[in-house]
C-alpha cells in the first residue's frame, strides 16, 4: 500500500525545505522541526529527501539491520573527500569495509584496549602536569585540552605516533587542518551545487589541507616500514600484517592511509566532546560530582590508578553513559530501508530516502526514560537500570554492524581521565553563569566552556 502521508513543512519553489535548515548547525533545525511536526517528518533538501524520526518505536525499527542499514549520505558522504573508503565513510558494499572491519574489530576490542593503559596514562600525565603548572587562576579551555588529550591518545595507541599536542601553544597543525576540512564539508552539504562550484577558492584550500593530512599518514606508514617494530601490536602493525580470513586479502597502503585519518577524525572530537558534556553536566549537578569524587577516593585514594580500578568506577561510568544520553557528540546518524516498506506499518519509505535518527528524541523519549528524562541522573544506569533498558534505547555509538568500533577505547579513556582529574583537582566553571552554547562541526560540543583546576588540599 501507499501508507499514510508523512508530515512535512510547506515547500518553496526551487529551494524545497532547504531554508528550514541552519547550514552551520543542521541538527538544531531537526530538533526544532521535531517540536512542530512530531516523531516523523520529511524534508525536501533538493539534493536529497530526508525523513527525521524522533521516538523510540520508530527508531527501534530503523535500527534493525535486517530491514535497514547505515546510509552514507549528506555530510558523511562529503567527508569521503578526506576519508574515502575508511571504516566510517565506506559504503556498505565496498569490499574494503569488510576486510577492515574483520581485521580491526578485535584490535578495538576490550582485551586489546586494556593493553593501551600505559599509553593513556603517559598522555594524561602531560595534561595533569600542564594544569598544575598553569595553576588555579588559569582559564582552561576544556575543549582545547580534551581535544589535545584525545588526539594524542589515539595517535600513540593506534600508531605509536606522538602529535605532542600538549607541547605547543596551538593545537597540532594536523588537527587544525582537520577542523577546517570538517567545517567546510559541513557547509558544502547545505549549499546548492552551483554555489559550491562558485566557491572554488575554499575548495582549493580544502583540497590542499586534505593532501597535507594524507602526507602525514603516508609518512607514519613509511616510517614503520623503514623501521619495523615487531615488539608492538598497535593498530598500524595489525593493519600492515593482517590477512582477512574471508577474502584472504590484506589492507592496501592506500586504504591504511584512509583508516589512519578515519581514526583521527572519528576518535578525537567525539571523545573530547563527551568529556566536555560530562564536565558541564557534573558542574551543574554538584551532588553527582560529589559522588564521582567519593568513588575515586574510595576505590583509588592517593595511589596511582591501576588497570583493575577501571571496572570498579561504576558511578563514573554511569555518569559517562548519562552524559552520552543527555546530549552526546554525534546527535544523529543516517539509515535507509533495504527495500521499500512501510515504516511503523504506516509510512512509505524507499531506499533513496535518508532516514535521520534523532538521538535527542530517542534519548529523551519519556516512554523509555520516564518523566524525569530531562534531568541528568547517572543513577538511572545503576542498580539494574542498564540491564532493564529495552533494546536500542541507548544508541550514542550508533547501531548494528556499523556501530562505533572505538567505543571501548573511548569509555576506558574517559573513565581514566576522570579518575586522574578527580584524584587531584577541584574543578570549577571559570564563568559560573555559563549557559550551554553548542558548536557544530561533524560532531557537536560545548562552545566557550572554560574551567579552573585547583589542587585538592593534601593531594600533591
Ligand atoms: C562509528 C560515536 C569514539 C571510531 C561511530 C558511529 C557513532 C559513533 C554514532 C556510527 C556512525 C553512523 O552510523 O554513521 C562515537 C562516540 C564516541 C566515539 C559517541 C566517543 C564517546 C570513537 C573512537 C574511535 C571511533 C575513540 C577510534 C578510532 C569509529 C569508527 C566508526 C565509528 C572507525 C565507523 C565504524 C564502521 O562503520 O565500521 N562512532 N564514537 N569512534 N566510530 Fe565512533
Comma- or semicolon-separated keywords:
50% helix; single chain; 460 residues; binds protoporphyrin IX containing FE; alpha+beta; 11% strand; Bifunctional cytochrome P450/NADPH--P450 reductase; five-stranded mixed sheet
Please write out the topology.
Layout: H1 26-37, E1 40-44, E2 49-53, H2 56-62, E3 68-70, H3 74-83, H4 95-107, H5 110-114, H6 117-134, E4 140-141, H7 142-159, H8 173-190, H9 193-198, H10 200-226, H11 235-241, H12 253-284, H13 286-299, H14 314-326, E5 332-337, E6 341-343, E7 347-349, E8 354-358, H15 359-363, H16 366-369, H17 385-388, H18 407-424, E9 425-429, E10 438-440, E11 444-446, E12 450-455
Parallel strand pairs: 2-8
Antiparallel strand pairs: 1-2, 3-5, 4-12, 5-8, 6-7, 9-12, 10-11
Helix pairs in contact: 3-8, 6-7, 6-18, 7-12, 8-10, 10-12, 12-14, 12-18, 13-14
Describe what this molecule looks like in 3D.
The model has no long low-confidence stretch (mean pLDDT 95). By secondary structure, the protein is of the alpha+beta class. The radius of gyration is 22 Å and the shape is globular. Strand 10 (438-440) and strand 11 (444-446) form a beta hairpin. The chain has 18 helices and 12 strands. The strands form 4 sheets. Strands 1-2-8-5-3 form a 5-stranded mixed β-sheet, with helices on both faces. It has helices at 26-37, 56-62, 74-83, 95-107, 110-114, 117-134, 142-159, 173-190, 193-198, 200-226, 235-241, 253-284, 286-299, 314-326, 359-363, 366-369, 385-388, 407-424; strands spanning 40-44, 49-53, 68-70, 140-141, 332-337, 341-343, 347-349, 354-358, 425-429, 438-440, 444-446, 450-455. The N and C termini lie far apart (70 Å). The structure holds protoporphyrin IX containing FE. Protoporphyrin IX containing FE (HEM) binds next to helix 12 and helix 18. Residues 70, 87-88, 101, 154, 262-263, 266-267, 270-271, 274, 328-330, 333, 396-398, 402-406, 409-410 line the site of protoporphyrin IX containing FE. This is Bifunctional cytochrome P450/NADPH--P450 reductase. In the N-terminal section; belongs to the cytochrome P450 family.
